[in-house]
Amino acid sequence: MVAPVILYGSPVLRKSSADITGEDNITGISETLFSTLKNAKGIGLAGPQVSLLKRAFVIDTSPLSEDDITIEKYEKVFINPMILERNNDDVMFREGCLSIPDIFEEVKRPSKIWVRYNDLSFNIVEEEMTGIVARIFQHEYDHLEGILFIDKINPVKRKILSPKLNKIKILSRGSVNYYG
Ligand code: CO
Fold this sequence. Notes:
Elements: H1 26-40, E1 44-46, E2 56-60, H2 62-67, E3 75-86, E4 90-97, E5 100-110, E6 112-118, E7 124-130, H3 131-144, H4 155-179
Antiparallel strand pairs: 1-2, 2-3, 3-6, 4-5, 6-7
Cobalt (II) ion binds next to helix 3.
């Protein structure tokens, strides 16, 4: 099921998400996240962005690999993800977010991370990540803590963006009414 994407300004994006347990419908959560992400043609989507305060997110690099054949397709769901370690090599990369449409800014993050998560069968997986996947993982992980990429940009740039952000805030109020 494709869910409405929650926009910046909605309080749900600022909350911390709860762990997923055996009681949760993991397959259903994963399906909603993937279909909403594909419908929006994004590359990553986290629970809070579909009003689900649960620790899960999905990555799907297909829109990038279609544009650039050097980027390998990577599609995965991450349940209860954790970042165990980060390297000291920070890199800049232009990020965007489906909850903050039409805003793209450079964000500094470590280039390499070591992560742990549960897969769909609730097996524990540990993995080393670099490149675009490490970047998306960190962006989505922040969503589970109520953090948005605009929190991490240069304060002067943030100030310049504030009229644009306020417009999205007004839209987000509208969407709350529309979707009940
Ligand atoms: Co985002």
